[in-house]
Amino acid sequence: MNIGKFNSLYDLLESFPTEESCIKYLEQQRWANGIPVSPYDPTSKVYNRGDGMYRCKNTGKNFNVRIGTLFEGSKVPLRKWFVAIYEITSRKKGISSIELSKRISVTYKTAWFMNHRIRECFGIILEEKLDGEVELDETFVGGKNKNRHCSKRVKNSQGRSFKDKVPVMGMLQRGGKLVCKVVRDTSYKSLTVPILKTVKRTATLFSDEWCGYKTISKLYEHYIVDHGHGQYVDEDAYTNNIEGFWSILKRGLTGIYNHTSKKHLQRYVNEFCFRYNTRDFDDVSRFDWLLCNSNYRITFQRLIK
């Protein structure tokens, strides 16, 4: 099944006019050459029942292409799911749940759930650890104190205080991938672990003068720019790239989503990291990547508990 470029939502709907066309395309993306693989036993022979379902010989269980994916258990047609995936992956800043609900004619609750199920797949774009020249920085996500009503303002929340904000740690390989993690605080204990898990020891690190990076200076080649004294570039030592990403993240969160809770913030951050990491992809490639990596499923109860 050959699909052309999705230059618009109209093109997408033209490419997938029926539910059957969506199912066939999803099978081709998830299964090599469209040959069904049992989610219960990948080594088993599979029989085509002829009614859109397949049977796993070894387990005797029936299945379809939705099983084991973000589409499993959803009563929403695949055609609407495809529109939702296209909208969230092709837009530079994403799409709010209330707008998505209007675009595909579902309730706000359903659109919110669909958005989070899609975001759950964004966190697995990284295939290997970062290496080379890697910029490190942290930011704080949350509304500005001066914009709050006087009764809701938080005292002593300037600078690196996060009484009213959530800290996010960023690691960006120059010319490569970006990884961001929501952290408990910006102490050296909270920052060191994500760096060790994400960045190879052979990498060269660049950061500001924050004391939270004192441990990694003993483990990596590490250069510092002293922002506190007005130094932002010292030859190859700078953090301009990761700081530019923070601007994109905050404008998107404020302009599109308005409010994001700490509980779900990591998924929103993963969404923006996905766009950065696929910046050289076209819309079809992003769309296909999501379908190929759709085997990450989160339940509604887990989202709300």
TrEMBL record:
Pfam families (alphabetical): DDE_Tnp_IS1595 (PF12762)
Residues covered by the ISXO2-like transposase domain: 129-277
Domain of life: Bacteria
Protein name: Transposase IS1595
Organism of origin: Barnesiella viscericola DSM 18177
